[in-house]
Amino acid sequence: MKIGELAASAGVDTQTLRYYERIGLLPPPTREANGYRSYPEQALERVAFIRHCRDLDISLTEVERILALAEEPESDCNDINQILDTHLVQVRAKQEALSRLEQQLVSLRSRCNAHRKAAECGILQDLLGAASGAGCGCHPAAQKS
To answer: Which domains does the chain have, with CATH numbers?
Structure first.
């Protein structure tokens, strides 16, 4: 199949496929007499695998390692476990950060519960005050020294 067909089937653009080739995640295709790339059907599975890993926020470097392990069926899968364990730590840290962000936004939102003029808006006043170092309703006061 040609690069455009593979790209459409895999839901990526052709530049992505060329990049995957360049960094070695996708084996180089054969070339037709006219110079066009010709991909085997397995390329679609490979790209789908890469996309799924990326959807899980697995880096391309880690995808490369996982693919290498897939080609060594007798190897220990501890590397894959470590990759996933690392991601779990990162996801949990992101969840905590998002929870803190939500609390800050709720706190900030509570500063203005009525329709007012912008000059009287507690949210705007807090944001402007924070920009000048006065602190904000969503953060502890960050006074200028």
So the answer is: 3-74 (1.10.1660.10), 76-145 (no CATH)
